[in-house]
Model the fold of this input.
Amino acid sequence: TTVTVSATASHPIPSTMWGQMFEDISSGDGGLYAELLQNRAFQMVTPEGTTAALAGWKSLNGNITVVADSNPVSAALPNSLQLTVPAGNTNNIGFANVGFNAGLNVIPHATYKASFYYRFQKASKFRGSFVISLQDGSGTTLTSQKVSITGSQTSWKQVKVSLNTNIAPGSTSNMFAITLNGDSAAGEVINFAMLSLFPPTFKNRENGMRQDIAQALADMKPSFFRLPGGNNLEGQTVNTRWQWNNTLGELVDRPGRFGDWGYVNTDGLGLMEYLHWCEDLGMQAIMAVWDGYTLSGASLAENQLAPYIQQAIDQINFVIGDPKKSEAAALRASLGHPDPFPLKYVEVGNEDFFASDTYVYRWRDFVTALQAEFPDIHFIATSNAFNPILSPNPTEYDVHVYQTPTWFAQNSFYYDGFERNGTKYFEGEYAAISTNPDNIFGSTSQGRLTFPTMQSSAGEAAFMTGLERNSDIVFAASYAPLLGHVTHNQWTPNLLAFDAGSVYRSTSYYVQQLFSLNRGDEYLPSTLPEQLGTVFWSVVRNTSTKEIIIKISNTASTPSALTFVLPFKNVASKGSLQLLTGPATSSNTPTNPNLFAPVTSTIITGETFNYTAPAVSVNVITIKAS
Ligand SMILES: O=S(=O)(O)O[C@H]1C[C@H](O)[C@@H](O)[C@@H]1CO
Done:
């Protein structure tokens, strides 16, 4: 196949082209959010004896139970862990947290920040101390600190200690423990609340992100970050929807909520943490507002929308408002960020194609009010494009697709036929997730992928060459889900998988990274691939580095010989090749995390040059040319 490239760009490529979609889907608490203690504040649990109430916690010779505290640490956190020290025990008495999914990683030569509130249930003459420690799975102390306490402390008191580690434990089966001397403390009853243990965080942010996962995400150089979801925005009911104002301020004031993926969200990863994260990675937020539809399938009636429209106005004012004019903006300033955050896109709901009929009035009422308040914001619709017709006419639509690798390979022309009428598209969620076209969302035994495979990644890359070609109307695209725990998850495949100690980069992660790190700022038309063929390409130019960047996906199980004709005078005789290839059904997995990764080499290039794309490969060729 001969690919002739045009010297004249067809259109500029938006700087927002490649980014990330995030929600808490076994990816926030216990994942990107660095808090190491599971169930740290007993949020939303049923106290008094249910085992779920003590998830993550275990007794160390003490009697522990979760109580609905008669004098709770805050209105947001009604439950506490109550320790009763039994008589006649000379051991260290107390309790421990074993982390999320029984994993609590302890890295050496690091400072861990522990904090908790405690109070004696009834005054006593006790004088002694807590031993606050990190222990390995066999109970060997890795590091500890002592804090003096007295039985007169019947009001809540917060303890903060730094725990410095030296040796690396043998595994991630470690625990955070609070103990005291059983002999002297016999009979004492002590309540604990809002316990927290943080490792060093990405950019040392307070209440920040886990370093290794954050770094893997940063290494993609994303331009936007969609938050807070996805399904996790919506709630099963109106009362369990995501509410921006419940996710701010002191952790002790955050109630948490039942997330939409089957577990309680601490909301320690809240709107301010998301916005700081966008700042730290130089990303724009694509922020969603709740729009009156819940995952139960119910929509609010039109005459019920006003308070939620106001909540959305306040949410946007929190991000960009003037502290002198808006209380929500003043709250942002009080939290240390008087300047507005950058925000251009606000998504109205999520996947409202499930409730298109009511979206007609929900979109109309939300966007009419919001656009009046925020004339410079672009509101993204989440129903199917132009079906139904919405008013005001959406400037952007969010399009989602989960399909087979073959579907992606055969639909790289998805946007070529779209009318150029000024509407732009956000390919907000896409991934090849199953090899079974008759049951995309089935189980692994029905074709669902556990991890991306070279075949799924090459299919996605083919599709992405189409997104690049159509980036005159596709302004942003993100694979979903971005991140998920390797075993305790609600969805596979994920772009990145992780466990307590590691983060695993999939072949699709490398594809996303190859496209994001090898961007052009303008698109160069070229001979079109065969729409239903097996090899696909896009050609872009980076006008500042004067480089031509050719991305090729060969989805076939046989190599594909290509000839490129570049209409430039000075084309370098050598170019760089980044090649990701491997057997179609192979994956990077926790047992073989780096089987497949892009390999860089030099190839012969020129005004005309041949290149053979290996079977099942994603190729990025970069050539200096002017
Ligand atoms: O069950 S789905 O609707 O397919 O869920 C998908 C779509 C939704 O926006 C997102 O939260 C989720 C996985 O990324």
Residues 23, 229-231, 350-351, 400, 429, 480-481, 491 surround LX5 (CB under 6 Å). The longest strand covers residues 111-120. The chain is about 15% helix and 30% strand. The first helix runs from residue 28 to 32.
